[in-house]
Amino acid sequence: MMRLFINGLAASAGGGLTYLRNVIPQLAHRTDTRTTVWLSAPLRHEFADLPNISFISAGDDAGALRRFIHEQTALPKLIRSSGAQVLLSAGNFALCNCPVPQILLSRNSLYTSADFLRDVRLRGDYAIWIDTLIKSWLARQSIGLATLTVAPSEAFAVELSQWSGKKVLSLHHGFDPAAFTSDTTSLPHTAQLQLQQARDSFRLLFVSHYNYYRNFEMLIRAIPILSARLNRKVRLFLTCQLKSGANPGAYQTDSAAALANTLRQSGEIVELGAIPYRSLHHLYRACHVYVTPAYAESFAHPLVEAMSMGLPVVASDLPVHREICGGAALYFPRFSPTELAEQILQVQKSPALAEKMSSQGLRRSRDFSWGQHVDRLLSLAQELIESRSRERN
User: DSSP code of 9?
Assistant: First the structure.
């Protein structure tokens, strides 16, 4: 029986949480594997006791630096005491002096993004700029420290390999449509009312908390352009609040909030706030088009979620987005609100095009599987165990 240790302590938002929420239940069904998972106390509360899974809870988050130091000092002992044969580092940074072979999951595209560094400098947000440079250096060193580095898309694997000079494998994250739609819990009452009020509108959706690299300001600038060319009301639904302190991280929402102010008053931008993951499928079904203007990305789970719900996708023209969506999306230059509006118009004006994109998206979403992801991940882990055994003999 394989014994796996997952360091999920850094998972606090976005893709990291989605990954653990889906991979841990998959591992619980594997009778050939015993898994120990180290994660934060708040996240531990999301999981009931599961077969073949042992949880170790850490204290409340004390900041990235203190967490990193805690990982480097406490993790080797935890790995040894668990009897683990392989470490899966799920938070972009590897463990130094790891006592077992280590698979590093590298999925943060900001560390390789010149666009992001330029963006934070232009905003004068030098604290984030310095923080990113430090973490970027650590992430590059981590790829060298890990026995094997895995990226969630081929496009990002190529980018990481060119950036680090090391071999990086690609392994798509998965999707489980049955699990995604299994919870019948309704959307929060306020969200239901806001959708009801927009029933006669052309409804766009963007699922993300606020940050710079998701390019909110560019999306907001596209809405008046789109509204001027449509004969019906446009409403953009956001799953966040554009106000300071309401989103993970230290991103300042002032510029986006200022741009959105008039559009809020007219109802063209609707800030739903965070929507429980179990209820997201209701929100996708209530909208006409999914849109993402991100200028940096490594996978983008909401794209697969949207395609599985039959939504046409309009996405910024990134290699990762083309890899994930293929013909289920229309693409636009990532900093052009005019082109973004034009592509949305193409979908709105042509029911035949929208239907074709919807059908292609449904087919494409079936190509992603958490079960297949875990199978491949454990196969890689087994190869590392066998390689270590040969080296010792």
Answer: T
